[in-house]
Amino acid sequence: MAKIDLASAPMREGSGYPAPFHERAAGRTKWQLGDAGDLSDFGVNLVELPPGGWSSQRHWHEEEDEFVYILAGELVLVTDEGETLLRAGDCAAFPKGVANGHHMINRSTAPAIYLEVGTRNPAGVCHYPDVDLHYDPARGGYLRKDGTPYPKRTG
Taking a C-beta distance cutoff of 8 angstroms, is the pair 77, 83 a contact? Predict the structure, then answer.
């Protein structure tokens, strides 16, 4: 199967973050194109972010590269260096192991659409510098920075 039917691709709304961290990305919609194409080495998502929405909590990965390409609209990229406006045709890369938290915020009045590509590392640890959140699959998933696990979210 080479051609992917977007209408039948797995779709996920919101995020898997524990409460209350999930609220900022609640309006985010991801079509999991890499899953639809049976890719195993890297993931590809088509993402729609509504006005006011966040792509994620600000984060960085120990063992996963990330890349985004803006297809429509505009987003504000927030990193340790500050804020950068990204518009359709712009892209950004986040190499694994670089401790520079990043995320995007839609501060415009229209939805933004972007392509997200990243390494699939089932043991990938993720750091969230702004909030009491850490992700470590070997230790059960989402944890507080002191190692205490968050309860599973039910809604």
Answer: yes
What are 47's strand-pairing partners?
Answer: 30, 114
The DSSP bridge partners found for residue 46 are 31, 115
**Is the pTM above the cut of 0.70?**
yes
The pair of structure tokens assigned to 33 is: 């194109």
Environment class of residue 58 by beta-carbon count within 10 Å: exposed (0-12), middle (13-18) or buried (19+)? buried
Each residue's pLDDT tens digit, 11-23: 999 999 999 999 9
Over residues 80-110, the pLDDT tens digits come to 999 999 999 999 999 999 999 999 999 999 9
What contacts 138, CB < 8 A, 6 or more positions away? Answer: 123
Predicted local confidence at residue 106, as pLDDT? 98
Residue 51, both tokens: 């006005």
What DSSP character marks residue 122?
A: T
Collect all residues with Cβ–Cβ distance below 8 Å to 26 and sequence separation of at least 6: 13, 14, 15, 53
What are the structural domains of the chain?
Answer: 11-134 (2.60.120.10)
